Amino acid sequence: MDSSLLDIGFGVAGPTGQGLKAKVLAILCVHRVLWFPWGFLCASTGALLFMIHAPLLPPWKLIVGLLAAGLLTRVISQADMLYDWWSGEDERLGPPNSTLPLITGILSPKTIISFMVIETILCLGVALFLFNSTCFFVAVLMLTWGLTYSASPPFKRMTELQRRIYRSLSGLMVLGGIAMVAPERIFSWDAFVATLAVIIGCLAYHDKDSMRFTPLTPKGTISFTIFMSLFEYLWLILLWQTFSLNWVFLIPYLVLVVFKIRAISHGYAHSGEHEAHIKLTHVGVINYTIMLVMINISAAYSIYI
């Protein structure tokens, strides 16, 4: 059975066949291309928030910088996929993991490494030569952090807390966006508020694989999600106050808490079922995406209207 384009785009499953179409789909798969918008949105969050009170970047320069930030996150995803192939994890797990391009042979490890090297040079070049040394430093730090998790054996047996700590990578993307606009302010209070808002939002969405992490129990992981979700809403209020954003854009997001409460209640009642954790993850990812979009829209409104 052929994998869906959605599964291929998220890197969940690989394409079949050996033709040009299969190779193109395989390249998109190893890049997990449908995760690209999150890296783009995290970086644009930092850039747009700081453009409220800083000189505006030319649109072309902003777009190139954000595309480079998003692409750099795809380098990390390729490293993760490469390690899972090398360790034999994907093959052990069976379908759909065993249908991924490295397992089926549609793409070779050398091809993926070539993509990683070229894309890394391109992205770091944009950071250093189009922007500044601070932006370059943040990009190198983000790449190092991501590769350490993605392709380092000691970090593969992740506890729930360690897995979520890794998600603080999203905060480095925000810092990268800030460095594009106001590199001298990356250690400011405003930068701390903006960065932590995105990190907390990332920590607040559930992990579908929580049942196999330690030391938290399945219910314990849901309790952690509840705590971080409450923290997220409080910190978003601080973010809105710090950057004087229009409250109209925050209210719809706060209303969405109803759907998360329902998913959490269902998760608690069925904490021993993997499907309940998957459902809570889906709700959390949707909420997180909407949060990033709302922050970006609010910042753009403050800049241009």
How would you characterize the overall build of this protein?
There is one protein chain. With 305 residues, the protein is mainly α. It has 2 domains: 1-140, Tetracycline Repressor, domain 2; 188-304. Helix content is 72%, strand content 0%. The chain has helices spanning 5-9, 20-31, 36-51, 59-87, 89-93, 101-104, 109-131, 133-150, 160-166, 169-181, 189-203, 218-242, 251-255, 257-269, 274-304. The longest helix has 31 residues, at 274-304. It is globular, with a radius of gyration of 20 Å. The model has no long low-confidence stretch (mean pLDDT 86).
Layout of secondary structure:
Layout (H helix, E strand, L loop, with lengths): L4 H5 L10 H12 L4 H16 L7 H29 L1 H5 L7 H4 L4 H23 L1 H18 L9 H7 L2 H13 L7 H15 L14 H25 L8 H5 L1 H13 L4 H31 L1
Helix pairs in contact: 3-4, 3-10, 3-11, 3-15, 4-7, 4-8, 4-10, 7-8, 8-10, 10-11, 11-12, 14-15
- CATH 2nd-level architecture of the largest domain: Orthogonal Bundle
Query: What structural class do the secondary elements suggest?
Result: mainly alpha
Distance between the termini: 50 Å
Q: Give the C-level CATH assignment of the largest domain.
A: Mainly Alpha
Form type: globular
Overall tally of domains: 2
Gyration radius, rounded: 20 Å
The count of strands amounts to 0
Mean pLDDT: 86
Summarize the entry for a quick read.
This protein is an all-alpha fold. Helix content is 72%, strand content 0%.
